[in-house]
UniProtKB/TrEMBL annotation:
Membrane topology value: Single-pass type IV membrane protein; Single-pass membrane protein
Annotated function: Required for vesicular transport from the ER to the Golgi complex. Functions as a SNARE involved in the docking process of ER-derived vesicles with the cis-Golgi membrane.
Keywords in alphabetical order: Coiled coil, Endoplasmic reticulum, ER-Golgi transport, Golgi apparatus, Membrane, Phosphoprotein, Protein transport, Transmembrane, Transmembrane helix, Transport
Record lineage: Eukaryota, Metazoa, Ecdysozoa, Arthropoda, Hexapoda
GO BP terms, alphabetized: protein transport; vesicle-mediated transport
Keyword Ubl conjugation on entry: no
Residue spans of biased composition, Polar residues class: 1-12
Name under which the protein is recorded: BET1 homolog
UniProt-annotated location(s): Endomembrane system; Endoplasmic reticulum membrane; Golgi apparatus, cis-Golgi network membrane
Gene3D superfamilies: 1.20.5.110
Disordered: annotated segments: 1-25
SMART domains for this protein: t_SNARE
Family of the protein in this entry: Belongs to the BET1 family.
Length: 117
């Protein structure tokens, strides 16, 4: 009999016959329950090992992403420094305008390409 969708089967509630036959029946039932418990423990151990392996793999991926983000942040910082230096130079506003128009053109081109693909 199953209750609440648990794969638990309650023990027999009928009184066992006394004597050696009843003792042997209880011993056999205990052995069967112990074997089932051992199988479930083995499955849990396997699951725990798999979870540990997955956690280590995900941690490795996250560390790689973190390193990539640090490198990208440094690259972006250097680029912004160059852009600011270029803007401070004489005639930089004209070059900044051309650069802005070029970037805008590239984004519009990409948007059109992706939209009508």
């Amino acid at each position: 009999m199953r209750r609440n969708n648990y794969p638990y089967q309650p023990l027999n509630q009928h009184p066992a016959p006394s004597g050696p036959a009843g003792h042997d029946a209880l011993e056999a039932e205990n052995e069967r329950a112990a074997e089932e418990l051992q199988q479930k423990i083995g499955a849990l151990k396997s699951l725990t090992i798999d979870i540990g392996n997955e956690v280590r793999y995900q941690d490795k991926l996250l560390r790689g992403i973190d390193d990539d983000m640090d490198r990208t942040g440094g690259f972006l910082g250097n680029t912004m420094t160059r852009v600011v230096r270029l803007a401070k130079q004489g005639g930089g506003s004209k070059q900044m305008c051309y650069m802005f128009l070029f970037v805008l053109f590239v984004f519009v081109l990409l948007w059109l390409t992706l939209k009508f693909k």
